[in-house]
Structures are given as C-alpha cells and as structure tokens.
Amino acid sequence: SSKIRNMEVQSPDGVAVLEDCIGFSLTKTISKVEEKLKKGVLPDCPDDDIIPSVGNEMGAEAQIRFLKAKLRVTQEDLANVVFECRKKDDQNQNLEARLKDSEEENTRLQRTISVQQSQTEKYKMLSQEANKKSEGLQQEVIALEKVLK
Q1: Which of 38, 51, 69, 118 satisfies CB 3.0 to 4.6 Å to 55 for a cystine?
Q2: What are the residue ranges in the chain where pLDDT is below 50?
Q3: Is residue 147 within a helix (H) or strand (E), and if so which, with residue range?
Q4: How far apart are the C-alpha atoms of 13 and 10, rounded to whole Å?
Q5: pLDDT attached to residue 18
Q6: Chain centroid to CA 54: how far?
Q7: d(Cα 130, Cα 63) in Å, to the nearest integer?
Q8: Where would one find coiled-coil regions in this protein (predicted)?
Q9: Terminal C-alpha separation, the chain
Q10: Phi/psi of residue 76, each to 5°?
Q11: DSSP alpha helix (H) spans, 7-59
C-alpha cells in the first residue's frame, strides 16, 4: 500500500478518476476490518461474493488470510493498471508532440506552397508577355523580310 500511496495521481483530460479513492488509506481500512473481526462484529453482507461458498466452512483466520491474499492481488492489479495508464499517458504525450511537430511542418509547407504558387503565376505572366513580344518581333521580322525582297 505504501507503493500505491507514493504513486502520483494524474488525471489527463477525458479520463475518469475515482475521486473517492483520493486520500483513501488502505491500511486504515484493513485495520478497521480487523478490529471488527476481533470484536466479533462481522459486516452484514449475505450477498457478498468476495469469499466463495466454501468460505462459510473456513475459520475466521483463514478468511482473513484469504481476504489479505485477495487484497494483495487487487493491489497488484491496481499497480499494473496505474503502470499501464502512465505508459499510455507517455505514449499520448509523445503522439501529441509528434502531432504538434507535424502541424508546424504542415504550416511551414503551406507557406512554401503559397510562395511557390505566387512565383509560378508571376513566371506564367512573364512567359505570356515574352511570347506576345516574340510573336510581335517575328511578325516584324516577316514584314522586314518582305520589304527587303
């Protein structure tokens, strides 16, 4: 439980966090249950399926050992889920960074495309003007050749 208490609780956007569990002390809860068991006050949970039907034939100490084992397994499962959550969070951060880089690259490329398109238009206009001038000069050459003949 100390390992779990020392873990940071992160709540990325879009992820549900059980706020009831924040500040929850597992050791306090276990000690409360143990005190109740020592006093002989058992909780009224007839429909509780934490302990299998064979548990009715177990003694109190066996039930406690069983519940402690189940608690350890649950804690391990929780630690694994927290680890996986952190791993996924790291992956999300990496993907967000890559997305940001891609968006910046896309913006840069769009600007480059825009500049190149305007240059292309400029050169098309210059080409058309040069073609018109060339046609005019060719006709002038033809007219001068006729004059020379």
Answers
A1: 51
A2: 1-21
A3: helix 60-148
A4: 10
A5: 47
A6: 44
A7: 97
A8: 85-147
A9: 110
A10: -65, -40
A11: 26-39
